[in-house]
Write a structure and sequence with these properties.
alpha/beta; Alkaline Phosphatase, subunit A; 4-stranded antiparallel sheet; 36% helix; 16% strand; globular
Length: 462
């Protein structure tokens, strides 16, 4: 069988119900919608991330293993050296492998660069080296369209244009080579503070209740004071919530345009590529008193878009899937024999449960930060490792011996005591799953440069 090119695009912090695939009130992802409409594409409305933040979920997407197996759960954890990544396996099978990442969570520091022949980590100090002079000149000429214009505030800038430039360069280069390409692209501009590039701010401006300048200020302040706002009970007015949500949707519209550029280039230059578009996790917009992507495994932060294109006869719909399933399906269809421990072939039927995990060490730090602002806040968050197991009808979670059972779509009322038989069934399933996948949390430690730490601080990780 001919070896197929594989283009994997991960959108940052995009929740399924804020995409055009979900009937959302704003057409945030027209390019992903267009990809999903192809005859050789399948869209899945019930795809659930393996983790609730970038490092954990990306480690699962790049290894095909569950968080309990790879152990990348905390701020300082790094992918263990004994876990072979998907790009390493593909490289062994003759693939040329490349990745583009604008965030330190997916970088050499976390071990998630392993197996890539070309790994481009973009940050303030590496932009020129990684993107090249010509791309930088084009970016600067369009900085009022693809970014925030002439400002020294790096939190306001977007570099997705350069991510797409590097990605499409690899695609065009592949057209002149014999080896198939595995290209992994992380597009990060939908991460808070939801500060869209100037050229895209008019997309949904008519939906704003405040003026644009005031709305941008609300989004920036929300991002700068995430923990403080959570400790205070999220004291936003209706108009401020409107600003946050509309600008979040606007940021999604921008990353969708970049994904569209990459997909269109792949379709133009490559012969029948497999294209995957998904997200690393969703985003919390007030659910359970939270912002961003921390502390809870609510559907808002776990349900992500998924479109697979280039595999004929694949049925999408509302069945449960997880990103590792895509790797397993591609491996089977293309006869690659990849090791994907957490994956199930989508062609073989529906998975029984979807499992999302959250590390306790990171949660404890967030809870402590909340209590620094208000000692009475944060007590309802569990500080231990959390495992969430869901079916179409229920979500069960376990943390530090505490069990909760939710009858979906409600995730506010715990039914564990009133539904003992169902709770027992989930207890057994969770025990079996953990017995199969669990290992000690990674003892390999991530070491970030000063520049990486500044970037992560800007994004609210420290």
């Amino acid at each position: 069988m001919p070896r197929r090119d594989i283009i994997w695009i991960t959108l940052e912090s995009v929740r399924q119900d804020h995409t055009s695939l979900s009937g959302h009130e704003r057409d945030t992802t027209p390019n992903v919608r267009r990809l999903a409409a192809r005859s050789d594409s399948a869209a899945f409305s019930n795809c659930f991330a393996h983790g609730i933040w970038t490092r954990t979920s990306s480690a699962s997407m790049l290894t095909g293993s569950a968080p309990a197996s790879h152990g990348v759960l905390s701020f300082d954890s790094k992918l263990p050296a004994d876990i072979k990544t998907v790009p390493e396996q593909l490289s062994d099978r003759g693939y040329r492998t490349a990745a583009v990442s604008p965030i330190a969570q997916v970088s050499e520091a976390t071990g998630l660069d392993r197996g890539f022949d070309d790994f481009h980590y973009l940050t303030r100090g590496t932009l020129l080296e990684e993107a090249g002079l010509r791309s930088m000149v084009r970016y600067l000429r369009q900085i009022h369209h693809h970014s925030a214009g002439l400002t020294m505030d790096t939190k306001k800038h977007s570099i997705g244009y350069l991510v797409a430039e590097i990605a499409t360069r690899h695609i065009r280069q592949r057209a002149d080579e014999d080896d198939p390409l595995f290209l992994y692209v992380h597009i990060g501009d939908s991460h808070h503070p939801y500060y869209p590039p100037k050229g895209w701010r008019e997309a949904f401006v008519d939906d704003l209740q405040l003026d644009l300048a005031a709305s941008l200020s609300v989004a920036m302040e929300m991002s700068d004071r995430l923990i403080e706002q959570m400790a205070a009970g999220l004291p936003f007015s209706d108009a401020e919530w409107n600003a946050i949500e509309v600008l979040y949707d606007t940021a999604i519209r921008y990353v969708d345009s970049l994904a569209g550029t990459i997909v269109d280039t792949a379709r133009s230059y490559l012969d029948d590529p497999i294209v995957v578009v998904t997200a690393d996790h969703g985003e919390l917009l007030g659910e359970e008193g939270c912002l961003a992507h921390m502390l809870v495994a609510n559907t808002a932060v776990t349900n992500v878009p998924l479109v697979i294109s280039g595999l004929e006869g694949l049925d999408g719909g509302d069945r449960l899937v997880q990103p590792a399933d895509v790797l397993k399906t591609i491996s089977n269809r293309c006869e690659l024999s990849l090791s994907v421990p957490a994956g199930q072939d989508v062609s073989a039927g529906e998975r029984a449960v979807a499992v999302t995990q959250r590390g306790g060490k990171r949660a404890r730090k967030k809870i402590d930060q909340i209590r620094d602002h208000d000692p009475e806040s944060g007590s309802h968050f569990c500080p231990g490792n959390l495992t969430s197991v869901r079916t179409a009808d229920y979500r069960y979670q376990r943390c530090n011996g505490q069990e909760d059972l939710f009858v979906l779509p409600d995730e506010t009322v715990d039914r564990a005591e009133s539904e003992p038989a169902i709770t027992e069934r989930f207890r057994q399933v969770t025990d079996e799953w953990l017995a199969e996948h669990a290992r000690e949390e990674s003892t390999d430690r991530a070491e970030f440069s000063a520049q990486m730490r500044r970037q992560l601080e800007d994004l609210g990780y420290f």
